[in-house]
């Protein structure tokens, strides 16, 4: 197989980063990205893009840690380079505060982020309703810039990108040798995954350029994440809600909760309300599969179900998916050489 | 009781506000006037980035360390007030970088979360092998000075755009007490060979992805003669110039290149930053801050002067502690004049 043809379905964070890893892992591959949406209209564009991992209940911790470490290392290098501003990657320091004792004193990712330590008494005094806290420095990926930067890197490798809604993976079997499913929430319909469910998140993106630190409530519901141009205020975690329409009452509630953590936000200007649906699952599905229909085989690599933690693990899962694509190619090459005998 | 403040930088305005806040109700005859040849945005304080950070060493000057602490604690207390944004006050974290281990600074317990840098953090800054991380405050002059001005105007304090040539000038007009907050030009009012310019130059850029201050130190070249990057609310300040004895307020092409090259080496992403301005200013440097009373007798004119100048590159850092001290000196003047039976204000 001289030049395996790989189709990547999905052009959000996972689709683009997976496509890029495939081009890096398999330079002879011809990669095409197919998606009904591209940045700035993907679900990923709504996210703040903070590297603070979400814990997947059914993925082994060492695997999540490996994914996070690879992602952090990759982005750390970009943040330190001349490309940082174009890619929208930057370091940000701040605080995670808890009203009641956190489940774990030391989360699995504490030695990967920078300078992780408990907050001092003086720091906690800023949060009279909270009794515990963690201080650290991590990375943030601003979208659309990061997605657009990934698209630019892909185009430089010769990867084609087409706007196309794929209704069924079998549509692709004639044109492509391998299909990579990075459809996020779309996988529910595309491959009938009933374990996938949306967790609705509403956020406000505001102009408040004096906010330089992130503040996050350990319950994950209230957060203030300063981006390059806008600060993301959040949020909600509404399990099972498919609604993409902003809710005015929710907007008021998010604003109030964030102002109680950072009163100066009262002066925030130019409030934009956005809604995203986290493509959630008990464990991220990074897996290869061979679909079979009427004697025809279609190798598929799945990479979806990242829920609230996509940005934190994207590069790690993309690397793993690219590796699985490599395995698919070996199998195809093996069987094609067998066919020759 | 006429009080004239000379100077409308951070020192003049904050001293005036402190005195008015503490004495106006106790002294109904108090008339406060501010005289300056430059007002915001044309003062030295307006050019400063606004980062609260004292020099590395206090040289045993405990008084200045206490004034710095008073200022930080006061500002921290203002953070959650609705005025914070208007004041140009906000929290900021960042890095101090060194090429060798150094002792902890006098202010390590004043700022929040002071700690040494980890090896991984140092990877961000090739060439630097030691450093500190802490969370401090920004107080942007471009917002703070107008805020102070508004508070003063609301209180009926009068402003005069006038260059005062001598203390006599004011005493002969009936002023009782002069607050000398004339910064770099104090020498014009009364010779002071200890007051020297510490010339600085800065480049203003748009680099909104930079969220931390980064101050490098070269122990051989001295304070602020090593690149620094300080992100403000509207633009980021690049600097690294401290020229003792240089009175020029003209931007130098050589200094521009030095700042640009060294800051881009420190933060490669800055190469893509758009330059939106450049500025030179003179830090009013002195071995220690001059904050003291002086009785001036000139012929049949007599008056009290409270000197409050010589804050070098840490004016914003120390301003409130000095303003409170100036107010205490004012209280002692009033006591001496039997204007007050007991000194007012908080007992420290």
UniProtKB/TrEMBL annotation, chain A:
GO terms for molecular function: D-aspartate oxidase activity; FAD binding. One of its GO terms (biological process) is L-aspartate catabolic process. It comes from the Eukaryota. Its EC number is 1.4.3.1. Residues 1-19 form the signal peptide. InterPro entries: D-amino_acid_oxidase_CS, DAO, FAD-dep_OxRdtase. Residues 5-324 form the FAD dependent oxidoreductase domain. D-dopa binds at residues 223, 278. The keyword Cytoplasm applies. GO terms for cellular component: cytosol; peroxisomal matrix. Its cofactor is FAD. It catalyses: D-glutamate + O2 + H2O = 2-oxoglutarate + H2O2 + NH4(+); D-aspartate + O2 + H2O = oxaloacetate + H2O2 + NH4(+). Keywords: Cytoplasm, FAD, Flavoprotein, Oxidoreductase, Peroxisome, Signal. It is found in: Cytoplasm, Cytosol; Peroxisome matrix. The keyword Oxidoreductase applies. Pfam families: DAO (PF01266). FAD binds at residue 166. Selectively catalyzes the oxidative deamination of acidic amino acids. Suppresses the level of D-aspartate in the brain, an amino acid that can act as an agonist for glutamate receptors. Protects the organism from the toxicity of D-amino acids. May also function in the intestine. Belongs to the DAMOX/DASOX family. This is D-aspartate oxidase.
TrEMBL record, chain B:
Pfam families: DAO (PF01266). GO terms for molecular function: D-amino-acid oxidase activity; FAD binding. The keyword Oxidoreductase applies. Its cofactor is FAD. Its EC number is 1.4.3.3. One of its GO terms (biological process) is L-proline catabolic process. InterPro entries: D-amino_acid_oxidase_CS (IPR006181), DAO (IPR023209), FAD-dep_OxRdtase (IPR006076). FAD binds at residues 44-45, 49-51, 164, 312-317. It catalyses: D-valine + O2 + H2O = 3-methyl-2-oxobutanoate + H2O2 + NH4(+); D-alanine + O2 + H2O = pyruvate + H2O2 + NH4(+); D-lysine + O2 + H2O = 6-amino-2-oxohexanoate + H2O2 + NH4(+); D-methionine + O2 + H2O = 4-methylsulfanyl-2-oxobutanoate + H2O2 + NH4(+). It is found in: Cytoplasm, Cytosol; Peroxisome matrix; Presynaptic active zone; Secreted. Keywords: Cell projection, Cytoplasm, FAD, Flavoprotein, Oxidoreductase, Peroxisome, Phosphoprotein, S-nitrosylation, Secreted, Synapse. Residues 2-329 form the FAD dependent oxidoreductase domain. D-dopa binds at residues 53, 217. D-serine binds at residues 228, 283, 313. It comes from the Eukaryota. Its main location: cytoplasm. Signal peptide: none annotated. Belongs to the DAMOX/DASOX family. This is D-amino-acid oxidase. It comes from Catharus fuscescens (Veery). The gene is Dao.
């Amino acid at each position: 197989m001289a030049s395996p043809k790989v189709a990547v379905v999905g052009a959000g964070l996972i689709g683009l980063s997976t496509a890029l890893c495939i081009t890096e892992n398999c330079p002879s591959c011809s990669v095409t990205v197919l998606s009904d949406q591209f940045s700035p209209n993907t679900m990923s564009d709504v996210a703040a893009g903070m590297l603070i991992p979400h814990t997947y209940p059914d993925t082994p911790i060492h695997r999540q840690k490996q994914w996070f470490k690879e992602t952090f290392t990759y982005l750390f290098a970009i943040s330190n380079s001349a490309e940082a501003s174009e890619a929208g990657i930057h370091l940000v320091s701040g605080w995670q505060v808890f009203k009641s004792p956190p489940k774990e004193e030391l989360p699995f990712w504490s030695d990967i982020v920078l300078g992780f330590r408990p907050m001092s008494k003086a720091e906690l005094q800023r949060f009279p309703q909270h009794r515990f806290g963690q201080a650290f420095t991590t990375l943030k990926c601003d979208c659309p810039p990061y997605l657009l930067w990934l698209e630019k890197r892909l185009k430089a490798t010769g990867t084609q990108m087409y706007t196309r809604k794929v209704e069924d993976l079998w549509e692709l079997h004639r044109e492509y040798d391998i299909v990579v499913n990075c459809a996020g929430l779309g996988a529910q319909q595309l491959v009938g995954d009933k374990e996938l469910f949306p967790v609705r998140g509403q956020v406000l993106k505001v102009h408040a350029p004096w906010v330089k630190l992130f503040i996050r409530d350990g319950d994950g519901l209230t957060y203030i994440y300063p981006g390059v141009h806008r600060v993301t205020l959040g949020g909600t975690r509404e399990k099972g809600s498919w609604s993409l329409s902003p809710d005015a009452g929710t907007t008021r509630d998010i604003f109030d909760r964030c102002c109680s953590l950072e009163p100066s936000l009262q002066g925030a200007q130019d409030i934009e309300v956005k809604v995203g649906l986290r493509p959630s699952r008990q464990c991220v599905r990074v897996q290869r599969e061979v679909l079979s229909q009427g004697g025809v085989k279609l190798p598929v690599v799945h990479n979806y179900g990242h829920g609230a933690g996509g940005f934190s693990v994207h590069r790690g899962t993309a690397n793993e998916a690219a590796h699985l694509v490599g395995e698919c190619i070996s199998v195809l090459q093996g069987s094609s050489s067998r066919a020759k005998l | 009781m006429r009080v004239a403040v000379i100077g409308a930088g951070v020192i003049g305005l904050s001293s005036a506000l402190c005195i008015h806040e503490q004495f106006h109700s106790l002294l109904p005859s108090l008339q406060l006037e501010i005289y300056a040849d430059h007002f915001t945005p044309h003062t030295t304080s307006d050019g400063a980035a606004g980062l609260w950070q004292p020099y590395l060493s206090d040289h045993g000057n405990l008084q200045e360390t206490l004034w710095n602490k008073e200022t930080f604690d006061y500002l921290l207390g203002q953070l959650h007030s609705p005025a914070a944004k208007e004041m140009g006050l906000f929290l900021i974290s960042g890095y101090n970088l060194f090429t060798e281990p150094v002792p902890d600074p006098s202010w390590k317990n004043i700022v929040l979360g002071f700690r040494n840098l980890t090896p991984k953090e140092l990877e961000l800054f090739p060439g630097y092998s030691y450093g500190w991380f802490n969370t401090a405050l920004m107080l942007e002059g471009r917002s703070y000075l107008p805020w102070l001005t508004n508070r003063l105007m609301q209180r009926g304090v009068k402003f005069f755009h006038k260059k005062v040539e001598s203390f006599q000038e004011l005493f002969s007009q009936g002023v009782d007490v002069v607050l000398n907050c004339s910064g770099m030009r104090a020498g014009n009012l009364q010779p002071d060979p200890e007051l020297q310019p510490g010339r600085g130059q800065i480049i203003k850029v748009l680099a909104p992805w930079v969220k931390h201050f980064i101050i490098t130190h070269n122990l051989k070249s001295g304070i602020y003669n090593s690149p620094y990057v300080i992100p403000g609310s509207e633009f980021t300040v690049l600097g690294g110039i401290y020229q003792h004895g240089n009175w020029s307020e003209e931007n130098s092409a050589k200094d521009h290149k030095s700042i640009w090259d060294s800051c881009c080496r420190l933060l490669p992403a800055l190469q893509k930053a758009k330059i939106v301005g450049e500025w030179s200013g003179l830090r009013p440097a002195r071995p220690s801050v001059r904050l003291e009373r002086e009785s001036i007798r000139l012929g049949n004119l007599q008056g009290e002067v409270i000197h409050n100048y010589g804050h070098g590159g840490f004016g914003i850092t120390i301003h409130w502690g000095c303003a409170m001290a100036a107010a205490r000196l004012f209280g002692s003047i009033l006591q001496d004049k039997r204007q007050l039976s007991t000194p007012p204000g908080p007992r420290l």
